[in-house]
Amino acid sequence: MRREERASSIQLRERGVLPNAPEEAAPLVTGVSDPRRLRAVAEAHLAGHLRDTALDAVVSSLHIATGAPIVVVNLVTPGLQTYVAEIGVGEPCSTVPDTLSFCAEVVDSGKPLVVSDATAHPVYGDNPLVRAGSVGAYAGVPVVDEGVVLGSLAMFADAPREFSEDELALLHYQARLVSSGLALRRMARVDSLTGLPNRTLLTDRLAWGLLHLERQSGQVAVLFLDLDHFKEVNDSLGHAAGDEQLVAVADALRQVVRPTDTVARLGGDEFVVVCEETTTTKEVLAVAERILAAIDALPPPAQGLKIDASIGVAISRSSTTEPDELLGRADEAMYRAKQDPKARWVVDAPSCEAASTGNTNSMICPDRP
Predict the structure, then answer these.
(1) Which of 84, 130, 217, 230 is a plausible cystine mate for 73, CB 3.0–4.6 Å?
(2) 159 CB neighbour count, 10 Å cutoff
């Protein structure tokens, strides 16, 4: 073990103070820089100072019960601590090197960490808050959702101290409450059939993508996808077969989009892909081309039945664009594509651009006044 204070947590666990959580029955996804974990953190779409009343209540109760001046629900990414809820920090996030971060060690190991005297510790003695005299002791436990360690629930004391068994047990059970709350939040924002983000989560991510245009140049594109002939599958084979097709389409979309793209299901046979960090319409149309090819490659649900798709694309380069406006423009473009037997997509772009994709069925239309 890299840090000897892990032994104190193991001893407390053996005495029943820190019982094993149900998630620990299977291996956890840990590691601050693990791509699977970072994807889960991104998909959780949590921000500093989230103002979630349940999470705020957790940190407040621990602060009152233990007297710890700093209590945080900390979402950990490389070099960055994001405080979804906090008392005593006063900021939504902070930057601490992972090698000196208490919470990063909890995420790396997936296990509790207790440090009674950080000032004398060979590693944490160099933590900026310890050197500044703001932190003297630490106790933290993992926050887990779907087997992934997203971060930690942690208490910081301003001087070296021993945390009592009752305090550590309370910390453990409050972390379970945090994990349960995050799971409920995720389930409320995910489509139950396909596991894709639903409209609520899609709108949040689209809003964040547009907001980022304030700080960096580029554009955000929405690809609104509607399945053609899907009703025939439902009518001929039943809703169970239709559901199988929807899951197959969702899996195909996941495989062909870029890592930074968001795929969502709005309901029925409508899907949306949000493409951030693009600079040209050609990049967006390349994503549309891959989506159509992936759907074309799906096996037909039955003889004589074949699902196709129409895509409407809307693009914005302005941070002032409302998410619903961009979705609406993409929806309208999709219906224009459905009405044109020669078009598989229609693009509503910020300006008329030439798109040399080799597909004569593409259209690029100007903004409406």
Answers:
(1) 84
(2) 12
What distance in Å separates the CA atoms of residue 359 and residue 328, rounded to the nearest whole number?
Answer: 25
Fold of domain 6-187: Beta-Lactamase (3.30.450)
CA distances from 20 to 138, 143, 232 (A): 20, 13, 50
Q: Distance between CA atoms of 138 and 70, rounded to whole angstroms?
A: 10
Give the active site residues: 269
The answer for 200, left when phi > 0, alpha when psi is -120 to 50, beta otherwise, is alpha
Q: H or E element: which one contains 68?
A: none
Tell me: the pLDDT tens digits for 200-222?
989 988 998 898 898 888 999 99
Dig out the tokens for 280 from the structure. Answer: 């040209």
pTM assigned to the model: 0.66
* First CA to last CA distance, the chain: 64
DSSP designation for 300: P
Joined together, the tokens standing for residue 74 give 């900390």
**Residue 188: pLDDT above 80?**
yes
| Apex 61 CA angle, 135 and 106, nearest 5 | 50
Q: List the domain boundaries for the chain.
A: 6-187, 199-365
**Alpha-carbon separation of residue 156 from 93, 222, 252 (angstroms):** 16, 43, 46
CATH architecture of 199-365: 2-Layer Sandwich (3.30)
Question: What DSSP string describes 216-274?
Answer: S--EEEEEEEEEETHHHHHHHH-HHHHHHHHHHHHHHHHHHS-TT-EEEEEETTEEEEE
User: What separation in angstroms does the CA of 234 have from each of 52, 172, 242, 293?
Assistant: 40, 48, 5, 23
At 363 the pLDDT is 53
Question: Cβ distance 108 to 123 under 8 Å?
Answer: no
The two three-digit tokens of residue 118, written as one number: 């950080």
Distance CA 79, CA 65 (A): 30
Tens of pLDDT, residue by residue over 310-328, are: 999 999 999 999 999 999 9
Q: Which of 164, 180, 165, 157 is nearest to 58 (CA)?
A: 180
